[in-house]
Amino acid sequence: MVKIVQEKQPTVKLQKGDKIIERTVKQYQDNKAKWDFKGFNVVQDNVKEAKEVVAENVVPLKKKRKTRKKKDEQMDN
Question: For the whole prediction, is pTM greater than 0.85?
Fold first, then answer.
């Protein structure tokens, strides 16, 4: 079994009216002028660090069962 560790980027929440979106800090800083122009403001000043996900905690999904299609039978009347 291979363990895969996925690193999550630190995120920042942006708000415009009732709408709140979450973007990575890098994406926000690269496009800060565009977010300000669109009317989005930072909800929180501190940046939260996301938890790392380890693959051993993930449950593998089962394959979807294929259903058998019935052939159209001609009725002899």
Answer: no
